[in-house]
Amino acid sequence: MGYIDATFKTFGITLKNLFRKPTTIEYPAVRRERAERIRASFALVHDANGEEKCIGCKFCEWICPSQVISIEATPKRESPVTGKKRGYASDFTLNLQACIICELCIQVCPEDAIIMTREQEQPGFCREDLVLTMDKLYANEKKTLAWHTGAALMEMQNPQRGQEKPAAPAAATPAAAATAAPAPTEDKPA
Amino acid sequence: MTDTLEELMLNPVIRALFWGLVMVTAVMTVTAWTTWFERKFAGRMQSRMGPTLVGPAGLLQPLADAAKLLQKEDLIPDSADRFLFNLAPILTVGFALGVAAVVPFTPDILAADLDVGVLWLLALSGLMVFPTWLGSWASNNKYSLISAMRAVAQGISYEVPMVLAIMVPVIMTGTLSLSDIVADQVKNGWLIYRMPFTGFFAFLVFFLAGLAEANRIPFDIPEAESELVAGPTTEYTGMKFGLFYMAEYIHTLLSSAICAAVFFGGWDGPFAPGLHWMLAKSVLLFVFLTWVRWSFLRFRSDQLMDICWKYAVPATLALIPITALYTVWHGGAR
Q1: B319 lies in a domain?
Q2: Chain A: nearest CA to B42, how far in angstroms?
Q3: Which own/partner pairs from B9-17 qualify as long-range (CB within 8 Å, at least 24 positions apart)?
Q4: In chain A, positions 23-52, which contact chain B (CB-CB < 8 Å)?
Q5: A18-75 tens-digit pLDDT
Q6: Contact B263, B201 (CB under 8 A)
Q7: Are B140 and B81 in contact (CB under 8 A)?
Q8: How many CB pairs under 8 A join A and B?
Q9: CA distance A59 to A170
Q10: Region B315-334: what's the mean pLDDT?
Q11: How does pLDDT run across B129-138, given as a tens digit for each residue?
Q12: Hey, are the CB atoms on B41 and A18 less than 8 Å from each other?
């Protein structure tokens, strides 16, 4: 009799499903709310003075596990804006084809120059589309940026650090504050 | 004009040609949209949506599928027997459509009112295993061949209960003509509930055998997508594969139409014209068939043979003498 019971049960389950609303979300038309910490593509950002933040230190190039970042740095020269001597990257390439989206480059960046974007879709018609050149990376600055910059992540993982060194230069930049989500910064004691 | 048309239709050759053409066109069209229906139905049963993008509610999906299949490269393996390889898909659709000839939709809409319609039906569905075997033998692929062996074993095994099951309506009505079987049901009640109630069990076995003959889930061991890729059709591409696929659907559709005619009184029903009743019954049976397909898992090979030889055949062998004795007791078929 077990077989017969099971047969009717099976019919019942499929029938129940037949009249249920499908769980499908029709993707291009309907887009789900993505998680706050979603990581998609990358952007290089400028600081409040309109100057490139990247100093060409190559930390990200060294830490990248899949070695997709390649940087050409220029010797230090005077900044046209602040007049201080600092380094610049003359070329910055990030190859998304092999990128594992581990976010290590963001964590290691001392200047919060590289930030991830929150835009989910990044399709391309050819492989070249997936190689982010310096121009594309700076163009991505205008997209929705994630809150997690290097400084914000450090703050979140080790809040005491901010207390010990209240004047840490990385945490105080206005661009980082603008893109930072409220949660981690509010935890910081005043 | 109408007189001459009616006179023309009296000519059996012209009548057969006309209804044959109508039947083939209708069956092919319905088959195309059957695939849409099945995908939609299956989708909803699995909490998905099925085709939605091509046309309203995905209704133009069959056309898109056909266009896609026609664009595919026509691959023939080097070591294949080209003639047989090309012949098999044509034969499979031919045999499947051949069954449509004797399906009585109404007393008038009927391509060929054969006196031995039941025999023709059984013969053609028995032949259905040949194109499968032919195609996989000709494609010279060992996996195709293995699955073709399964398909033939299954097809031939289920032929036995199918023949025995359809003998019950034949004994009860005393005729081998499908249209006479329906006419008898119009007069004396549908076979599904008529005393001695063997029609119901015969229907169950016939339905099961029909599923097995069409290689549908839960009897799709020869095809078994998840294990054998596509079984006998592994080497086929494009529209040749499409023809095998189409044959499966035609077979399924027609076996539900035949079930409707033989066991559910065909065109018999109140209020509406006979054709509507016949089509409604066929469609309902087809929906049930699809429901079965998307509810159950595949049987194992030995379970499949067990069901056939240990349950279906003995059951039908018992049904036949019961029916025969009852019919003789009540003074023969009415």
Answers
A1: yes
A2: 8
A3: B16/B111, B16/B112
A4: 23-24, 26
A5: 888 888 888 888 888 878 778 888 999 988 888 888 888 889 999 999 999 999 988 8
A6: no
A7: yes
A8: 31
A9: 15
A10: 85
A11: 888 888 888 8
A12: yes
**Domain around B264:** 60-329
Cβ count within 10 A of residue A149: 29
Q: Do B43 and A11 touch (CB under 8 A)?
A: no
Crossing angle between the packed helical segments B61-71 and B12-45, to the nearest 10 degrees: 100
Domains of chain A: 3-187 (3.30.70.3270)
Mean pLDDT confidence for B322-327: 90
pLDDT of amino acid B220: 77
Q: Quick check: is B175 in a domain?
A: yes
List all residues 6 or more positions away from A54 whose beta carbon is below 8 Å from its beta carbon.
A44, A88, A89, A92, A111, A113, A114
Q: What is the pLDDT of residues A119-154, one digit of tens each?
A: 777 778 988 888 999 988 898 888 888 887 888 887
> For the residues of B5-40, what is the DSSP string, one character each?
HHHHHHSHHHHHHHHHHHHHHHHHHHHHHHHHHHHH
Q: Report the distance separating Cα B155 and Cα B177, nearest Å.
A: 24
Query: Across the interface, do A14 and B43 touch by the CB < 8 Å criterion?
Result: no
Identify the three-state secondary structure at position A94. strand
DSSP letter (8 states) at residue A145: B
Which of chain B's residues have a Cβ under 8 Å away from the Cβ of A18?
A: 41, 44-45
What is the structure's pLDDT at B286? 92
Kindly indicate the confidence band of residue B205, based on its pLDDT and cuts at 50, 70 and 90: very high
Question: Of B289, B120, B298, whose CA–CA distance to B226 is shortest?
Answer: B298
- Residue A28: closest CA among chain B residues belongs to which residue? B53
CA distances from A98 to A95, A134, A139, B137, B216 (A): 6, 17, 21, 45, 43
Chain B residues lying within 8 Å of A13, measured CB to CB: 295
Here the tokens at position B88 are 């098999």
Q: Does B272 map to a domain?
A: yes
Helices (H), chain B: 2-10, 12-45, 61-71, 82-100, 117-127, 129-138, 142-173, 178-188, 198-213, 225-228, 238-263, 274-293, 301-306, 313-329
Closest B-chain CA to A12: B295
Q: At which residue do the structure tokens 């595949």 appear?
A: B298
Say if residues A58 and A90 touch (Cβ distance below 8 Å).
no
**Does some domain include residue B89?**
yes
Residue of A nearest to B289 (CA): A11
The total of structural domains in chain B comes to: 1
Q: What is the pLDDT of residue A185?
A: 44
Please give the single-letter amino acid code of residue A108.
V
Instruction: Identify which of B44, B47, B291 has the shortest CB distance to residue A11.
Output: B291
